[in-house]
Amino acid sequence: MKVALIGVGQAGGKVTERLTRFDAEMGYGAVQGALAVNSAEADLQSLEFADTLLIGADRVNGHGVGGDNELGTEVMQSDIQQVLGALDGRVTSSAEAIFVVAGLGGGTGSGGAPVLVHHLQQVYDVPVYALGVLPGRNEGALYQANAGRSLKTIIREADSTLLIDNDAWHEQGESVEGAFETINGKIAQRVGLLFASGEAVEGVGESVVDSSEVINTLRSGGVSVLGYATEIASEDSGENINTAMSVSRQALLTGTSLPDATTADSALLVIAGEPDRIPRKGVERARRWLEDETGSMQVRGGDFPLDSDRLGALVLLGGAERSDRIQEFMNRAREAKKAQERDEERSDPAEQFADDRLENLF
Ligand code: GDP
Question: Which parts of the sequence are annotated with region: Disordered (predicted)?
Answer without folding.
Answer: 333-362
